[in-house]
Every structure is written in structure tokens, then in C-alpha cells.
Amino acid sequence: MDENTELSCTMKRFYSLLASALLMVGAWAQTSVVTFNLNMENVTASSSGVFLGGGVMGDATAYQLTDPDGDDVYSVDVVLPTGTTGNYIFLNGNCPDYSCKENIAGLPCSDPANFDDRTLPIVTGDMTISTCFGECSTDGTCGASSASALVTFEVNMINENVSPDGVYLGGGVIGGPAQHQLTDPDGDGMYSVDVILPLGLTGNYIFLNGNCPDWICKENISGLPCSDPNNWDDRILPEIAGDMTISTCFGTCSEDGFCVPPPPSSDVTFRVDMSEYPGAYGTVNLNGSFNGWCGTCATMTDDNGDGVYESTQELEEGLVYEYKFTVDGWTTQEEFAEGTSCTSTIDGYTNRTLEVAGDEVLPAVCWNECAICNAEPVPGCTDSAACNFDPNATEDDGSCVFGEGPVVGYTVEDALCFGGTGMLTLDSATMMLLDDALITVDVVGAEETLPAGDYVLVATDLQGCSNETAFIVGEPDELQVEVTIVTEDTGAGDGQAEATVVGGTPYYVVVWNDMAGIEVNPDSLSVGLYTAIVTDGNGCTASASLTMTVAGIEGLMSLDGAVFPVPVVDQLNIRLATPLLGDATVSVRDMQGRLVASTTMRPSQQDVALSAAAWEAGMYTVQISTAGARASWSFVK
Q1: 216 and 307 co-located in one domain
Q2: 310 in a domain, yes or no?
């Protein structure tokens, strides 16, 4: 190689290196620095940080923003390829599930087709994006902070199998399906979360049993009064007027957090013997009203290979269910003629039926039969409309009897008093049929007595034909008496009281008694306890009591005093707490208001004694009267 050739090779290597360098510089020039500035002045920044993420940025914590100067503006520089666009969002906190992301749903800067995230403008070079958390500001300023309230959401999950992924609040004005997770620290089944919402806010929300971005685990309140059919059957948030608590039950419209207990249920095992099935099959299925005739959702099993397939279902007690056995979903199904003994025809469809009355293992019936395979026929009436229908019969023997049942004569007497019992009396012709054992009579709804209510009289003849007649036992309104004082006793046994009677049956008799049960005149009552007893036209009674007081007694009642001994024997002693300032009259009356003793006390006197040896045993009232006040005591002799 000569000198010129060597120089030529060296120059080629130089130009090649220069071209590579220029290509690298060109590649570096195809990225841009985008500065994100986020004003957080209207919210409290989470202690776990403020983040930029989502969409083209990455996950929820792709970039953390910082605020070195403490001015509430958080920033981060992100290097992005020139030409980049897509979605992004800011998050107040470290929440991988995006539950703490800003809520801009419904605002012009949100993309409803992409989780209500923001839209990144096309990156054409180095640029700065400045905005406010939760707002659409483009210059980094924040609007005036709106007044807010603390709203506590409570949902009772006592009737639910709570998802291991948690219970959530979301939807509508709240946000995504996992916007806020509710917790149950004390394990009582009540899950709750506190959410700060602006005053005046209203809209929709929903609870979800699980973390399901597709909303499949949200509660179903469709058709209930608390659902909004125009907004995905979500709940309606009342307008926020201040701190408040919303308490409900999952899947219901409860307003106090109470869940109605689920009805009792039973485990019913359905069994079918496929040993006589004529064709080939892959799976045996159970379809019924309890699973929406779903086809393949309830596959029966034959664990021991004996040809008997089983499936156990949890069903609500007291309900009647339709069902049938099918093969390979709906490829082949049982077909029954109307009137077949083990079936019912409902809405034009004839299927097997079962009324659930408790845990039960049903017989292993043969495919498309009411009995077990190879069973001996059971003769009897197989027509369910017949009086003597035999549900256990598998072969009709022509014994069916049809009729309307015996007609009986009877009279009904209502209860005389409220809460009392009535009477059913059968006429003589019916009694003869009963005595001769030609009919039986039963009263549906009755026990040993007939309190007011609705009943059905069922008469059945020897052929099993029945006749039902509804009747009602009535009762009068509750008898009540109200007593009031018309005028108080002046100290002369002249108090008056009256009684007002409602309900019962006219006419009424009212008797007033004192504490000893002695009848008194309600227009001549002295101080003491009295009872008014009312008897109505049916002999029903009611009572009420009052205490007759002394007019103008308030002034002296503040003075202390006592009578002794109690009960009184031969002498009644009265002692006032302070001496009298003037003359006072002392009077003793029995419960009929009759004066039995009297005396006068003088100024400065504080004690007085009265002989009681001649008084009869009973209740008495002693009264001390001055020109301006009175005082009284009741005692027993």
C-alpha cells in the first residue's frame, strides 16, 4: 500500500465516524423535556407524595413531583419522545389502584373514554404544562377553594359474602369503581369511609363488593326506589349541605344501615337416575326457577358411578320451585304431560315442582318419570284437580272423585271486648254430619280461640272434596277512659273531676272509687287518689286514676312538716318546720270528704295533737289553712 492509498483509507474512516456522530446527535434531538407544574394550594398534599402517572406516563407512581420551595406548586421534568401524545393524570398519594387520583370527571379537560384522565398535547419540543389539581387551569392558577363537608359513607354487608378484594365506593360524582375503599375495623359488618366533598354537590354513586374495573361487582338495586334508572341504576347522592352520614345496606334502600335478615333457607339435594336413559350424553344438568333455567350452570355429579346424578341447592324455605333435568345443557330435556303427578303447569309450562320445607334429599327419580327406575306402579288418583288426588300415585286407577265439597251452615259472633275472642257456631244440620263422621271441619288460622281476624272454614267430605268459606271475627274499638280535674279542692272536700270515654260499645256507666275501693261522688272530692271505672254496654271495663290536689297550695307546700305516727293509732300529731305567723284552721276529713275533726292553731304555734281514738280505720286527709296558703297530708288510721 502506498502513501496515497493509506491516506484515502484514513479519510474514509474519518467520514464514517463523523456520519455516525451526526446520526447520534439527530437521535438525541428527537426527544423533548416536558415540565409538569401542579398547583396543590386547594388540597392537602398526601404525606406519601404527589405523582404523575397513567396513560403514556406509566403506572400510578411513574413520576413523583416535588415542591422544594414550599409554595404548593409541585413539579417534575419528564423526557418524552417528540410527537408523544395520550393520557395522563395526577395523583395525591401513592395508590397503585388509582383511588387517590384527581377527579376531573365532567370537566372539559377530562377524557371520558379513557378513565376521565387528562389529554397530553402533542409534544413538539421542550414545553411546560401548568395546571391545578382537580381543575382544568392552563396557567397553574387555582380557582377559589369551595367550601366542603365531611361525608361518612356506611354500608352494611352483613348479608353478603364480602370479597377478599375489599368493598368500594365509586361511580358518578365519586369517581372510578375503586375510588374509595371502605373498611370494617371492628368486624361488625358495617364498612365505612370518610370523603370530603364540596357543598352543594349532588349526583350518583354506588357501592361495589370487590375491585372490578368493569363494574360487574357493583350492588344491584335496579327497580328499587333508591336507584336512578337514567344513570346505570346507581344511587342518588343527596345535595351536600354540611357534614353528614349516609348509612345503608348493600343492595337495598335502607336509610339507617339496617339489613333485613335473609329468609331461612334449606339444602335440597336433587337426584336423577340415568340408568334407563336411551341415548348418549356428556353432562346431566339441573335447570329450574332457582337458577334462571341457565342451561349448563348446574352440572350434576355421579361420584360413585352408579348412574344416579346429584346436585345440592340452597333454596328459600316456604317457596315453590319449578325444575327439570336436562342433558348437555338444553340439548335434551324432560317433557311431561299436563297433570302428571309430580308436576305443575304454570304459565303454560309443565315442570317438576317442589315446595321447600327444610333440608331434604329427594328420591332418585328415573329420567322423565315421577318414580324411581323399575319401581312397582302405585295405583291411585293421579289427577291433581281431583278431590282424592294422591301425589304418590304413579298409575291412575280410575278412582278420581270430583266435586265442590260439603256446604255447611254457621254463624259468627264478634268479640264483645277489644282483645277478646269471638265464637263460631255450626248449625244443627252440620253438627249431624259431624256426629256421623260424614264430614270434617277445620278453621284455618285458628288455634284454641278466635281472636279478631280473618279465617277460612274448610269442610271436607269422605271423598276428600273440600269447600272453603272465608269469615271475619270483628271486635269493637279499645275502651278507654281519660280523667281530668275540673276544679281543685278548696279544703272543704269540694274538688270536682270528670271522665271522658271513647271506644267500646255504648252505653257507659262510670263509677268513681277512693283508694279503699269505696264509691265516691266525683263532684265532692277531697285531696287523695281516685279511680274512675267505666263499664260499656257489653260489660267491658277500663279504668284511669288521678290525684285530687288543693287549690292554692303552692305557697305553703314549700314549708316542711310531718304527721306522725303513721299509721295513726289513738292520736294524730302534726309538726310544722317553722312556727305559724298567723291563725290557721286544722281539719281532718275521711275519703268521702266528711269532716271528722277540726281545731285552730295560733301564731307562733308549731305543733298540734288531735285525738283519733274514735276514728274508723281508713284513709284520711289533714289540712292546715291560713289566710294565704294551705298544706295537706294523707295518712292511714
Answers
A1: no
A2: yes
